[in-house]
Each structure stands twice: as C-alpha cells, then as structure tokens.
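tokens incoming
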C-alpha cells in the first residue's frame, strides 16, 4: 500500500495517468474510480476509431496518426500509468505499450478477450472467468465512492434530504438492456414493491438513469407520490452521491453491475429488483452479493423495512493497492525508475 510505504518506495500518487476509453459512462466509472484511489493526476484520452480500425477492434491496430502524429492523443511525454477500458481502447493501449515500453505501466479494466498479455495488469469482476498471474479479481467494480468519500458526504446532510423522515430509501433506476427486459408486468411488480415500502412508512430519494424508460418512471412516480420523497427530474446537479450516502436502505434494479456495486459501497441494506431476462454472468454476480450478505431480493410485499449489516465493498481501493504494489516492485527492479517521461 502506498500509505504504508517508506520514503524509499516509489509511489504513483501525484504522477500522470492517461485514462483511455471511448467515453462511455460505465467505462469512465471504472478507470476514474481506480485513478482516484491511486491519487494520480488523470488525463482523459477519448478514442474514436473509424472504419476498419473500429471494425477490427480489439484485435487490429490503432491508427498511427491518431496515436503519435503532430496532433496525436498519445505523443510523449508519456505518463507513469495508463488505465483503459472498452474494446475500442485495447489497440491504443497495446500501441502505447509498444512505443513506451517499461516507461508506462498499463492496466486494463474488464476481460479484454485478447488474453492476459494485453496489459501489465488486468482487473476483472469475480463473475468473469479470466484468471492469471497478472489478473486481479474483486466482487464489485471500481468506482468513485470510496469509504472516505461516503464518510465525508455523511458529515453534512442537505436540507431537502434532512427534511425526509427516516427510514430513507434510495431508489436507483436502471432500465432495459441486452440482458434484462422490463415488461409491463415487471414494471408493475416493481411499483408494487415501492408502494409497500411507502405504506410501511419509508420516504424516498429516487434517481433515474439514461436507460430508464418512461413507463417505469411513471409507475414509480405513481407508487411513491403519497410518501415524502425527492424524485430527481434530471435538472440541476445530480444528487446521486448524497442519495447514496444518506440512505438507510437502497433499492437498485439488477441490470447495472456498476449501480449495484456503488450501492454496496454504503454498507447499508441493498434490495435488488430483478426484472425479466438475465444471464449466467449477471446471475453469478448477484448470487455472490447475496452470499456476501450485502443484498437481498426485493419482495413485492414488505411489512417493514429490514436491516442487515455487512462490510462496505470498495473494489477501487483493493485494485489500487495491488497496482501500486506491482508498479513499485517493477520500478525498484528497474533501478529506481518510477515511470513516465523521466525514465
């Protein structure tokens, strides 16, 4: 761990990092969460390959002009570490490693499908199958809600949230994707659960996502309208961080690994609503969270809000400690070279 290191042990804190993604929110969550945990100075490198370069990703090359040309995103000086996520980022990460060699420590987030040699270190969630000597596995995904950040948020309760009577239930809405379908019956089943929580005396903090379909939001609105609540309508600053921190319990739809993981960073009871559909991978993920003791399935009828305890899950800190340790060992083996342009 960097915090435990002696003055002679090189550390990544304060060094430059490139975050390589195609800009999708889920991928940005992973790379930014790890960067924050490492304490690096992060610079986004958003890639947007065209034509054959995009078609053959992640197996083909990266466009050289976009990499190292006069206006290239990847021209020197190189950073100490590059953190990438998403198949479109993989050719760029490989090209950067080839050009920079040991000067850049590379990390890939998720299974690259191109083998463990894709990066110096790879992170995968436990429900993925990739394993290897340079692969680190955690139950949930890295994100920006560390224990320290949650604790800091809890020190000051916004007035509108303080006005809500306890127990306060945060409702995090996902929506349809390639794995989960939200049929009309599923939407109504979810709304019935929220209505039961309202009847049990709960107040609500509700936030939709980009994938939340209008009918689901309408039914959620209808089910909670008679209870004290805050329903974010998408205007102004997103209250999601405070909704996480100030919740006595949380309800999350099963379609997002990231949202479920962030809810489990709170240490508060998390109910998961499972709509139609699913997959073996998602089933493994949710089963592991239940076995850990963080989540329970959302019942349709709830007489009273349940409570249970578990240690908050903070994958970013776990991954950061491993990255820091491996990077420092390599830096010492290279004679004190600690990455970046100075090597």
């Amino acid at each position: 761990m960097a915090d435990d290191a002696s003055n002679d042990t090189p550390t990544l804190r304060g060094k430059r990092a490139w975050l390589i993604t195609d800009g999708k929110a889920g991928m940005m969550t992973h790379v930014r969460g790890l960067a924050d945990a490492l304490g690096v100075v992060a610079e986004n490198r958003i890639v947007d390959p065209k034509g054959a370069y995009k078609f053959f990703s992640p197996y083909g090359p990266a466009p050289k002009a976009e990499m190292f040309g006069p206006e290239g995103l990847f021209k020197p000086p190189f950073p100490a570490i590059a953190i990438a996520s998403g198949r479109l980022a993989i050719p760029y990460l490989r090209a950067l490693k080839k050009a920079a060699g040991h000067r850049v420590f590379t990390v890939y987030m998720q299974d690259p499908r191109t083998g463990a040699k894709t990066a110096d270190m790879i992170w995968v969630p436990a429900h993925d199958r990739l394993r290897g000597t340079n692969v680190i596995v955690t139950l949930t995904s890295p994100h920006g809600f560390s224990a320290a950040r949650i604790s800091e948020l809890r020190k000051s309760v916004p007035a509108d949230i303080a006005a809500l009577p306890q127990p306060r239930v945060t409702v995090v809405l996902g929506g349809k994707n390639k794995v989960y379908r939200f049929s009309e019956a599923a939407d109504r089943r979810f709304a019935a659960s929220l209505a039961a929580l309202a009847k049990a005396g709960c107040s609500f903090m509700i936030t939709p996502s980009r994938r939340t379909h209008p009918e689901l939001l309408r039914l959620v609105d209808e089910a909670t309208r008679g209870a004290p609540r805050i329903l974010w309508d998408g205007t102004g600053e997103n209250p999601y961080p405070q909704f996480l921190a100030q919740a006595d319990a949380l309800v999350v739809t099963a379609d997002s690994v990231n949202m479920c993981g962030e809810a489990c960073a709170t240490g508060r009871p998390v109910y998961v609503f499972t709509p139609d559909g699913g997959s073996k991978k998602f089933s493994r993920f949710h089963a592991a969270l239940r076995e850990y003791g963080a989540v329970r399935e959302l019942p349709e009828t709830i007489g009273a809000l349940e409570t249970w305890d578990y240690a908050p899950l903070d994958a970013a800190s776990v991954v950061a400690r491993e990255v820091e340790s491996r990077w420092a060992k390599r830096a010492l083996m290279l004679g004190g070279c600690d990455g970046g342009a100075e090597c």
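note: Residues 1-6 have pLDDT under 50 and may be disordered.
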